[in-house]
TrEMBL record:
UniProt KW keywords: Membrane, Transmembrane, Transmembrane helix
PANTHER family for this protein: MTFA PEPTIDASE, PROTEIN MTFA
Transmembrane segments: 9-26, 32-50
The protein's name: M90 family metallopeptidase
Signal peptide bounds: none
Amino acid sequence: MNNSFPTKLFLGIAIFVSLIVVIGVWRGTIDTLWLTVVAMVLVGLGYNLIAKNRTMLVAFDPIWRNVLMDKVKFYVELDESGRQEFEKRIVQFFSAIRVSGVDFAMDDECRLLVASSSIVPFWDLPQWQYGQLQEVLVYSSHFDENYEVGSDHHILGMVGSGGNMAHVMLLSKPALYLGFENNSNKHHVGFHEFAHLLDKSDGEVDGIPELFLPKEMVNPWTKLVHREITRIKENHSDVDPYGATSDAEFFAVISEYYHKRPEILEKKHPDLFKMLQMIYHPQSI
Ligand SMILES: [Zn+2]
């Protein structure tokens, strides 16, 4: 049970008002209709309060620091206050999003890497709370279009769409781990799928994160994207060819590149780098 100050205050007021109403009904000065109205208001207020304080129901386990120190380079490089902020966001993520293993028993290490994938790229966008995401389903290996698992299958991650998949993200566990373990390549499936979610914030996964890009930059961004996609198709680009599949995949792929190897991206693609700075680190512009 949550014993924060607002909860105690609410409980005190609820007991006081309930007593007055019960005495009123007993003495015949308040009828049952009012009793029902007051009860409904109190239940509504109580529910709201619990929802607001939900983050307090999950506590950061100090053991988790070992996992973050071992696996998450971004966390290691933060100072003490930055690490505390990171831990606060881990708690926020766990309070809002379920992380489940589809065909294996989920453990804290894997859950922490999922949460870190949602924190590292969006460190300077704390107002963005994972869009409409409600659950991340992790598979023990890569999977196919029928959600069948197999190491020879090709899907590493996916953001669900439509029906009951609209609020779900799917990830392959080995691909997720590789994103954190290999710090020299440009790949990170967690960053990739969360980039799709950021793109989806305006209602469309179209490679243009309109809520995070000044309106006048939409055209220049689209031109840059198409120019680079052409280069990829002509074999003149170091961007992962998967980015040439569509504008949406380009945004996710270039986001991985930006978060894993920003210094190379800035050198080789200064225009794209500037645009991504505007999207992910707006206060630095
Ligand atoms: Zn993708």
